[in-house]
Amino acid sequence: MRYIDVKDLSFYYDDEPVLENISYYVDDKEFVTLTGENGAAKSTLLKATLGILHPQKGTVEISKLNNKGKRLRISYLPQQVASFNAGFPSTVYEFVSSGRFPRNGWFKKLTTHDYEHVEKSLKSVGMWGFKDKKIGELSGGQKQRIVIARMFASDPDLFILDEPTTGMDDVSRRDFYELMHHSVHHHGKSVLMITHDAEDVKEFADRNIHLVRNQDSPWRCFSVHNESHDDWRSE
């Protein structure tokens, strides 16, 4: 089932082409990485796909339903989202629990099932032992992990992640990639993730989309190159 289908997308900042004639897709139960050189407009592509930015040309189709026939839930994690200041008043547990509110409505009490989901989400990123800490007391890598836990608590069908492992150590990054692989292949989720750790993540991802510069043009124009999992791993 196709969750994202982008065809011939072009995006300009003022009159300068940044993305030109981009086509790519993401299916259900698929872990897809997005790579490219610095300045390759990877974040811009995600924002144009989600409608945060409006492309000048092309079509973006996002499925309304998930693979179970229910409304598709999307969770987007932008860059530097974990930049909380030291005075942020919430505890870790309160912050992650807030990811459950939209499922039941903002003014409904959380259920036992909700609290169980919050606990599992915190444990999945190794932060259960920090549940009573104030967010402002955490390190940058710990803040990033609780943002990811909140995302898991919301239980989306499609994760769209922009460099989610920023600030994590090598062990935490590998654990996160394994967690996303498990979510896709055991729980039917889908992942589209920008990463600079192409070598580290290749054993967990199913497919890579690589943004490359069009060398025949003086403009910052890019096209998409797809690599199958097998081709990627054989390099």
Give me the secondary-structure topology.
Layout: E1 2-13, E2 16-27, E3 31-36, H1 42-50, E4 57-62, E5 74-77, H2 92-97, H3 101-104, H4 112-124, H5 140-153, E6 158-162, H6 170-187, E7 190-194, H7 198-201, E8 207-213, E9 222-228, H8 229-234
Parallel strand pairs: 3-7, 3-8, 5-6, 6-7
Antiparallel strand pairs: 1-2, 1-4, 8-9
Helix pairs in contact: 4-5
Descriptive report:
By secondary structure, the chain is of the alpha/beta class. It has a domain at 1-73 and 191-235: P-loop containing nucleotide triphosphate hydrolases (Rossmann fold). Helices cover 31% and strands 27% of the residues. It contains eight helices and nine strands. β1 and β2 form a beta hairpin. α4 (112-124) runs antiparallel to α5 (140-153). The chain starts with a strand and ends with a helix. It holds the Pfam family ABC_tran. Keywords: ATP-binding, Competence, Ion transport, Nucleotide-binding, Transport, Zinc, Zinc transport. Part of the ATP-driven transport system AdcABC for zinc. Required for transformability. InterPro entries: AAA+_ATPase (IPR003593), ABC_transporter-like_ATP-bd (IPR003439), ABC_transporter-like_CS (IPR017871), Metal_Ion_Import_ABC (IPR050153), P-loop_NTPase (IPR027417).
